[in-house]
Amino acid sequence: MTIAPFLKSEFAQAENIPTDLYIGGEWVPGSEGKRIDVLDPSTGKVIATVADATVEDALKCVDAAAAAAAGWAATPPRKRAEILRKAFELMVARSEEFARLISLENGKSLPDARGEVAYAAEFFRWFSEEAVRINGDIGLSPSGANRIVVQYQPMGIALLITPWNFPAAMATRKIGPALAAGCTCILKPATETPLTAYAMAALLEEAGVPKGVVNVYTSSKAGATSGAILSDRRVRKLSFTGSTAVGKILLKAAAENVISCSMELGGNAPFVVFDDADLEAALDGAMIAKMRNGGEACTAANRFYVQEGIYDAFVKGLTERMKKLELGAGYAETTQLGPVINTAALERIHGLVKDATSRGARVTTGGEPLARDGYFFPATVLDGVPADAELMNDEIFGPLAPVTKFKTEEEAIKAANDTEYGLISYVYTQDLARGFRVAEKIESGMVGLNRGLASDPAAPFGGVKQSGLGREGSHHGILEFLEAKYIAVTW
Ligand code: NAD
Question: pTM for this structure?
Answer without folding.
Answer: 0.97
